Amino acid sequence: MPVVLCEHDPNWKEEAEKIICDLQQALLDNVTGFEHVGSTAIPGIKAKPKLHIDILLKPSADLGELRRRLVSAGYADHGNRFRPDEVQLTRQTAKRLASDHPNQNETLMNHRVCLCKAGCAAAADRVTFRDRLISERTLALQYEALKERLASNHKTGPFWSDYSAGKTAFIKEVLASPIGR
After folding, report:
1. Residue among 100, 116, 111 nearest 66 (CA)
2. Cα 180 → chain centroid
3. pLDDT for 10-53, tens place per residue?
4. Do the Cβ atoms of 80 and 22 come closer than 8 Å?
5. Is 28 left (phi over 0), alpha (psi -120 to 50) or beta?
6. Measuring CA to CA, which residue among 125, 123, 108, 129 is closest to residue 50?
7. At what angle do helices 160-176 and 121-135 cross, to 10 degrees?
8. Is the pLDDT reported for residue 160 higher than 80?
9. pTM across the whole model
10. How far from 169 is each of 6, 164, 165, 172, 176, CA to CA, in Å?
11. Model confidence over 102-157: pLDDT tens digits?
């Protein structure tokens, strides 16, 4: 499947808030916070239309139990795909999780969540990267241009890993550079 980027949709922020609301109810008191990260969280740049929410877990959280809860709610469990301290899960467009929500028949868009163990460095890096791109428009536009180049190189075939790998050097450079470079 080709990599397809869409113009930024201001509704992505509201969609993320809805997903977070449902996840708060599903995961109860096991969480210290939620972060909408990734390109959909950066106003004004193109992104794949799939939200990314990091779920920051308390040290006492039972990761296995939380995974089971999300799988039973329709999430696909991709395990420790990239790092040992986070678990990736995805959910296609579907109805809200909260059956008692006033808008329970409302659908939520495709999204990925990462169950991040306490102290997960990658989760902190994603927040730092997001915040840098929000505060430094030039960086955001450079990132968008890079993503467009990578997506145009991957118009056919399952090249998601090549697309993601192509962004890594830029992300590392932003994380290592001083603010306002």
Report:
1. 116
2. 25
3. 999 999 999 999 999 889 899 999 999 999 999 999 999 999 99
4. no
5. left
6. 108
7. 80
8. no
9. 0.89
10. 23, 10, 8, 5, 11
11. 666 677 889 999 999 999 999 999 999 999 999 999 999 999 999 998 888 765 55
How do 86-91 and 111-116 pair as beta strands? Answer: antiparallel
Place of tokens 């993320």: 16
Evaluate whether 31 touches 114 at the Cβ level (below 8 Å): no
Q: Is 37 exposed, middle or buried (CB count within 10 Å of its CB: 0-12, 13-18, 19+)?
A: buried
Higher pLDDT, 27 or 100: 27
What's the CA gap between 61 and 63, in Å, rounded?
6
pLDDT for res 180? 59
3-state secondary structure of 7: coil
Q: Which of 78, 23, 30, 25 is nearest to 53 (CA)?
A: 23
